[in-house]
Amino acid sequence: MKNLILSLSIFILVPMSAQVYQNSKFWSAALNVGGQALTLPSLESNKFYQPSMIHVNAAYKFNHIYGVRPSFTFHNFNVADKPNTNYANASLDFFVDFNQMGTYGFRENQWEWSVLGYMGFGFSTMSNDRRNRLPDENDPYIEANDDMMSFTLGITPRMRIGRNLMFNIDLGYVAHHLQDQSFDFNASTRRPRGFGGGIMRFGFGITYEFIK
């Protein structure tokens, strides 16, 4: 009887211990390409399918559930009858690995999906034909740009395709504070600096985990 109980205990505990992810603290890096939508104030000339975004981030996991990631995003999108608008956002995001919640930590199997949710804050700036714009005494920070504080909320589904490599899809919305220009820099739609405006980004790419 004792041998039976011992055997059952080993049979149960070994799979459980195999789920414990000892190397839960590590860095990863991601590169995404994509586009944007829901540019508010609206930008009718911008096409949803235009490949116009590059996004990079470097994420660090404090444990198997939570982490932080500095990120940088650049957009260059079309504006009717004007030069393209250049938009950049730098953000510090905090993320949660939803699949790891309620577990002791594990590494996904190949072709298995996981989901990250994130939120963050940072700085955004955009410009359009800066060379032809006159200096503005009331324009803070980068001259002739519209400079804004940003707040980001997003989700990143990921599929493991190798031991250290994952395919990811990213969808995030960046809301602005202190935006005064529309995305096409139309003077008639300029507004006092304050809350309002934002941009949704979407893309796909690769994540590499620096872990043994």
Structural overview:
The chain is built from one helix and eight strands; from the N terminus they run H-E-E-E-E-E-E-E-E. By secondary structure, the chain is mostly beta strands. Residues 10-18 have low confidence and may be disordered. The longest helix is centred in the N-terminal third of the chain and has 17 residues, at 2-18.
User: What is the string of SSEs from the N terminus onward?
Assistant: HEEEEEEEE
Report the biggest beta sheet as strand number plus sense, adding barrel if it closes.
8 strands, antiparallel, barrel
Radius of gyration, taken over Cα atoms and rounded to an integer in Å:
22 Å
SS content category: mainly beta
Q: How much helix, percentage-wise, in residues?
A: under 10%
Poorly predicted ranges (pLDDT <50, ≥5 residues)?
10-18
What is the overall silhouette? Answer: elongated
Strand sequence of the main sheet, in spatial order?
1-2-3-4-5-6-7-8
Strand content: over 45%
Considering the chains and any ligands shown, give keywords for the structure.
212 residues; mainly beta; eight-stranded antiparallel β-barrel; 8 strands; elongated
In brief, what are we looking at here?
The chain is mainly beta and 212 residues long.
Topology:
Blueprint (H helix, E strand, L loop, with lengths): L1 H17 L8 E14 L12 E9 L4 E14 L2 E16 L15 E15 L18 E15 L4 E15 L14 E17 L2
Antiparallel strand pairs: 1-2, 1-8, 2-3, 3-4, 4-5, 5-6, 6-7, 7-8
